[in-house]
Amino acid sequence: MSDVMTASEAKQIMDLLQSIDKKLDVHIVKTEEQFKTVRAEIAIVKAEIKALDDKVDSLRSELRDDVNELRTQQRSTDGRLWAFIVGLVTLVGSGVIKVLWFDRA
């Protein structure tokens, strides 16, 4: 049995193929538009990330400067505290030595 295709069947098949082709073209255009949108959104996100990264770097630099300033202030405070302690120990020690050795009145 050999099936013979009539002209109307061939026309229906061709119309169906053209319809599918048109739908495919529309789908391709929609997909390209979606890709363009996604690419634009990615570019925006990259710009936002870069801006945030720059801000974080700036904050990190400020924090580093603040820590260095606090370190300098702490050294100064430590120096004053040690000077006070040494002075106090010297004063108390000299007072004890004076009472023990030179107070013979």
UniProtKB/TrEMBL annotation:
<keyword id="KW-1133">Transmembrane helix</keyword>
<keyword id="KW-0812">Transmembrane</keyword>
<keyword id="KW-0175">Coiled coil</keyword>
<protein>
    <recommendedName>
        <fullName>DUF1640 domain-containing protein</fullName>
    </recommendedName>
</protein>
<feature type="transmembrane region" description="Helical">
    <location>
        <begin position="81"/>
        <end position="102"/>
    </location>
</feature>
<feature type="coiled-coil region">
    <location>
        <begin position="42"/>
        <end position="69"/>
    </location>
</feature>
<keyword id="KW-0472">Membrane</keyword>
